[in-house]
Amino acid sequence: MPPGDLFASHFLDHKAPGARDQIAERLRENGLVTLDGIATRDAALAFASRIMTISPHRDSDPDGLTTIRDTQRHAGRPGFAGLGNGQLAPHTERSGLPRPPRLMLLVCSQPADRGGECLLTDGRRVHADLLNHRGGEAADVLSRPQTAYFGAGDGHASQVLSSHPDGRVSIRLRFDALARWSPIVQPHLPGLQAAALGHQQSLRLNPGQGYLLDNERWLHARTAFVGDRVHWRVLGDPHFELGRGFAPALAAPQPAARVEALS
Ligand SMILES: [Fe+2]
After folding, report:
1. Backbone region of residue 212 per phi and psi (left: phi > 0; alpha: psi in -120 to 50; beta: other values)
2. What pTM was estimated for this model as a whole?
3. Which CATH number is associated with domain 8-238?
4. pLDDT in tens, 62-78
């Protein structure tokens, strides 16, 4: 396996015996599983149903599955960037809800002609970076209650880092026009953005391939694309026990093996 190959290092055969338990275990450990052999919309929905209680979304079909493609009707509308063909900054899915869905499944139906790679950031690395490399002040300020407001008028006041009573931490983030910040957080946003981008790892998904991530740990993004890129997305909460967020790393992280420059 080539170093830095995020797909290979997190791959799990979801058709193997005991796969559901292994997926639960991997999500507890790493917050991420990569998948293959999900060739149809029905297969994506069937897999998601094994793992999670599906939450409907504003843009989903009644069964909860959302087709992510460039609709050419949503350009420039805050909160609808996923349905265009532009680059997306690292974000938490549905960050404007009091309780965002814990899991996100994304499966490639049809890749773009050019671009459209998925970019994933392990929030555990971002947290460790902020804690270890910036005097810890950024992590402290970004943990203060209600220093961020995510969403439109019906959004949610929260903070980027939430500490839980058992010492685990969750991350919640967006950088688009639907993020508003307390003045005390503003000086730390460049460092936060640098960490979120610096730890991005790229996934080029072929048809039938996908990922399942813990939305309290991993941030997702994508590069701009050309062509009729079609992905299926399902959101929901796991059927199994999954402790809040992630256990903080003890040591400072190494930069991602393959850092994507987004400029
Ligand atoms: Fe998203």
Report:
1. beta
2. 0.92
3. 3.60.130.10
4. 999 999 998 877 767 77
